[in-house]
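Let us practice reading a record.
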Amino acid sequence: MSNSTPAWMGKWAHDLREPLSPIQSALYLLRHGASEGAERDDLFELIDRQIRRLVSMIDEVNDWVRADQGRLLHIRGPVDLMLIIEGTLSVAGGGGIQIEYGEGAEHARVLGDAPRLASLFSTMFWLMSSPAADGSRPDALATVSVDRAGGVIHLEGALSPAVAGHGPLETLFAQPQPASLGDGMGLRALIALAIARGHGGDLAIRDDGPTGQRLHLTLPLHDESTT
């Protein structure tokens, strides 16, 4: 392999192979009849779990490719921002994230793709609450505000210190992460950025001085009077 080959390519080869080893081991035990009853059920569950993990990795790469080709979003109409945010938190079990809505933010709407917006918020909350090496999670507060004069919605919150420990922040929205947080291909931040920009907004990290790095999302506010 050339020295110019990106580090994330080697990580992909390793990560895509990783689920296959337990699958192969489980299939060997099942094929040779070395397991029965509950143990057999556990092996089938292991196979199913690892296949789902592998499919999730492939889907992540597919989303990245679709984003690069401009085919990621399907804008269907106005969606309630608060509904998407609270639904995302509910599915994720909260993750220690508290949401503070500014004046008018609870009724703000965005013209967009609801499932992709949910994916965007899920990634943002994951970046705000990623656990440290000891498993502890920071208490995270995300604020949602509306600038009606500028026609913009803002969502921001402090970046988890654990994120900086997994790679330089300047590359987070520029290239795949070779040391990704969690179980994935290191593409979640890139896909989230593509979703934000596909909706006419942006996603970036801002240096907030003493309070550290903050994740900041902007989305165009849907103006009901124009529809």
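A brief commentary: The mean pLDDT is 87.
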